[in-house]
């Protein structure tokens, strides 16, 4: 595994706010505060034993404001990009005499304010977007029209995720709630079912017994609007067996420190977290799953994910990145000290060969994995929906872990009381001053040595 910050002019020194890999090639798309989308070809660094590099290919210029989110469609033939001011554009790949080019296919107009996150449906026919206007919109891509508006949030929607099995969508907002919507299809006149998502769970607080055992106290499960990031990018596992939600905040009691965490929701019960993955000193702002599954390496009775394969995923805090798999409890790798400003997005290449992350400091980090370093890939052609083991609702702290673990109480429930929110999020830019994440040098984990960036 080799990785580091690639010191090139990604977006004219402006913040890089989002990135995504093409699903069938090593083409990387990045979006920035320079209003531009840039396409890069990632080059391996294995031969020279260096970090991978990026070669500029072309720019997609259309947006008139900062590009906050972009995602390729599952087929790779389209690219969706969301920007400030409510702009949402679908780009389509066209064959030309000299190769291929991307052209504007549709402009989806309805959001009144900045689009912060978006996600395609598995079949590529629909798109969900989240916005500063407090709403999620499900779009019919072929028609270029609004299919459904989900307007239950009371503050900015900073993350959206589409269940790969198409039963659920999820959203995460700075109103301190995560909403789970379930598809209750409506039958049209000719017997055709129409997508119709209704809110099934609103996850807000955890109920906890106080020290005197006389009263129970409810604590919020998520950070409020003062979280210094405009993104809370949540994600479903590729097989749909669980949902991973960032921006978690948990207190053991009123007198204890707040623990930054990401929550794992089992598909069997999406009303409350099954597990939590504690992070370092900074809040979690994004999670992303590797698109491939891998063979199990060994039997691990202490593991909490009872799956017939291993799933690998990345968890980004404001200033560090943790790579986990479902067969072990501690992270399998930790990256820290890579950027001077907050991390904004994560992306995996289609073959699990590369992992990329973007930052508001204007740079991106690329990590390259050796062949089969993450394991022997297997197919998701016939996914078995397994669930997080329910024998314990906590992730225990192994002796060699340096990040603090906290208990998620058995009595966590979905609380439908809406959180009170302030009118404005205080500042879009996060503080450039970062604290170093505590890192263990034990053999159980490997640390990527970052490359210095000249100030």
Automatic annotation (TrEMBL):
Q: Which residues form the CAF1B/HIR1 beta-propeller domain?
A: 1-374
Any coiled-coil regions, as ranges: none
Task: Provide GO CC annotations from the record.
Answer: CAF-1 complex; nucleus
The protein's predominant localisation is nucleus
Q: Which GO terms describe its biological process?
A: DNA recombination; DNA repair; DNA replication-dependent chromatin assembly; nucleosome assembly
Q: Where in the cell is it found?
A: Nucleus
**The protein, known as:** CAF-1 p60 homolog
Q: Which organism is it from?
A: Durio zibethinus
Q: Give the gene that encodes this protein.
A: LOC111292948
């Amino acid at each position: 595994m080799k990785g580091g910050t690639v010191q090139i002019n990604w977006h004219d020194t402006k913040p890089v706010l989002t990135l995504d890999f093409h699903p069938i090639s090593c083409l990387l798309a990045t979006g920035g505060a320079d209003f531009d989308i840039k396409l890069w070809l990632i080059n391996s660094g294995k031969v020279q034993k260096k970090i991978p590099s990026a070669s500029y290919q072309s720019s997609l210029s259309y947006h008139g404001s900062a590009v906050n989110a972009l995602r390729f469609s599952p087929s790779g033939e389209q690219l969706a990009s969301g920007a400030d001011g409510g702009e949402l554009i679908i780009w389509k790949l066209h064959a030309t005499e000299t190769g291929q080019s991307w052209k504007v296919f549709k402009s989806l107009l309805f959001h009144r304010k900045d689009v912060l996150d978006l996600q395609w449906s598995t079949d590529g026919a629909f798109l969900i977007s989240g916005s500063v206007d407090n709403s999620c919109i499900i779009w019919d891509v072929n028609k270029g029209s609004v299919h459904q508006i989900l307007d239950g949030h009371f503050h900015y929607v900073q993350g959206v995720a589409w269940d790969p099995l198409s039963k659920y969508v999820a959203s995460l907002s700075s109103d301190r709630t995560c909403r789970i919507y379930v598809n209750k299809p409506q039958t049209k006149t000719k017997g055709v079912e129409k997508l119709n998502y209704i809110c099934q769970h609103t996850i807000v607080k955890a109920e906890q017994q106080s020290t005197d055992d006389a009263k129970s106290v409810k604590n919020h499960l998520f950070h409020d609007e003062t979280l210094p990031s405009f993104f809370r990018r949540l994600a479903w596992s590729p097989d749909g067996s669980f949902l991973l939600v960032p921006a978690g905040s948990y207190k053991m009691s009123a007198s204890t420190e707040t623990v930054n965490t990401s929550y794992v929701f089992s598909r069997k019960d999406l009303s409350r977290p099954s597990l939590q993955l504690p992070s370092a000193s900074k809040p979690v702002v994004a999670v992303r799953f590797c698109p491939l599954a891998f063979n199990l390496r060994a039997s691990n009775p202490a593991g909490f994910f009872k799956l017939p394969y291993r799933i690998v995923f990345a968890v980004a805090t404001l200033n560090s990145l943790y790579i986990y798999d479902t067969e072990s409890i501690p992270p399998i790798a930790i990256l820290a000290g890579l950027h001077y400003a907050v991390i904004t997005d994560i992306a995996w290449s289609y073959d699990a060969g590369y992992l990329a992350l973007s930052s508001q400091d204007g740079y991106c980090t690329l990590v390259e994995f050796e062949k089969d370093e993450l394991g022997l890939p297997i197919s998701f052609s016939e996914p078995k929906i397994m669930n997080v083991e329910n024998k314990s609702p906590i992730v225990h702290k192994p002796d060699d872990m340096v990040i603090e673990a906290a208990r998620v109480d058995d009595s966590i429930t979905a609380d439908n009381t809406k959180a009170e929110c302030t009118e404005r999020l205080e500042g879009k830019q996060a503080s450039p001053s970062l604290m170093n994440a505590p890192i263990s040098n034990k053999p159980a984990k490997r640390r990527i040595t970052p490359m210095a960036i000249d100030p």
